[in-house]
Amino acid sequence: MIWLTLFAACNTNGVKSILKQSECPPELDVFTEHVWEPVLSGQCVACHAENGVAEESGLRLDPNDLTATMASTIQVAERLAAKPSGTHPDGHGGGRVVQVGSDEHRALLFWKDWVGGTCELPQPRSCGEEEPAERLLRRLTHAEYDRTVSDLLGFDVRAGEKFASDPVVDGFRNDAHALVVGDLLADQYASSAESLAAAVDVRSLVDCDPGAEGEGTCAAVFVEDFGFRAFRRPLTVADIERYVGLWSDVAAAEGYEEGLRWVVIAMLQSPHFLYRPELGVQVEPGLFQLTDWEMASALSYALWGTMPDAVLFEAAADDALSSPDDIDAQIARMVGGVDGAPLDDRLADRAVGFLDAWLDLGQLSTVSREGLTPELRESLRRETETLMRDLVGEDAGLSDLMGARHTTLDPLLAEHYGLGQTGLVELDGERYGGLLTQGSVLTTFARPTGSSPVHRGVLVRERLLCEHLPPPPSNLDTSPPEVDPNLSTRERYSQHGSDPECAVCHDAIDPLGFAFEHYDQLGR
Asked: Whole-prediction pTM value?
């Protein structure tokens, strides 16, 4: 499936004296290949070069003198990986620019070890090599919260839309390290839980007649059944006793139903509801495997963005989610589209949401572009969404999305592109063809009255090639060059290549952006 296949100055005598501190051979080619090129040249040099905002720090980088640059990195090798990854106790002025566990982070750790005397070059990883994932507690995103509560209570919920915005990391709002519960969000969770509990008919959530079976018995049944679905696992004896006790205290003063309501309020604020664990059980030293209950949630939130259904719960209870064959069978069932069955809408929604986050297409609804009407915004958005939905579930890959030779046009878009056809339209692959020629993408990454080689180049460099660029130094004028009808865009942006401070990043950006110069600010 396409969206699943989709899931970085000393004098000579000074240099020599510094290099003697390392026990490993100070080979410049080792530093260049394993540290400078994969990390420092793209992520760090703009701030740590001469006249950069971090030029007074202990790290000085000079693209024209890699020997001096290597000497500087040896001086700070102990903190070289901790600072940009945000794990140093003193923090990092540029914020977190490399992710812990990423290839860039590993490169910086390698240099620390190399300077420390390991003298072992990093071994390249093969494409098929798998690394164990990090053990995590994953807080539900606001969208996952809404879908989960909707499934849990049986009516449409949009509470998460009013919560404090989830933090964005690399374009996505599901970074487990960033999704924490602060004071404001805790208050919002509490308010939401009380509102939801007031809106639901709690009697409908339990298959038990308190008049016939006793209120205490039905309360216990409610706690065990509702808690199982809310926590996405069986409750422990301690869990049951805690929530039955809560019901009993409230019911004694305010009645049976109010007691159940406060159980709902409490459970919707519990970490066992708000977080889904990926901790596993140890199967060998240092290696853990997800439990069947954790796997059920991992599958349901990956494919549907919500809690497991009854079939997944039953499979987890039967220990039938441990083998690859078991998991593959569940994925096939959850995806749908097999033997003529329709594709599960939730999967298509997740795929479209992934595409929006990946390419930041949500901006399309707010950007200001000359000639961009509300109707055109909607048509452009619908065109891209339709292409993604067409490919989801097929035996399609990234190349099918990038090189698609068809699109779906309404009359407004047919006129906009000058193609003269509506409905499913075959494309020539020259003027139009594939995701990057769609108006939604080109309009989002443009300027109000024209194209933008910088914005479009950054899109390709960061979102498609996964090479993160540092922000420009604060002392640089980053305003675009003035429009001159006598100059081409390439000529207007020539300073980017002539100014060393600019060229560090723009040599990696502008050539990619210039490839889109025959499309205007609306993708025509």
From this structure: 0.77
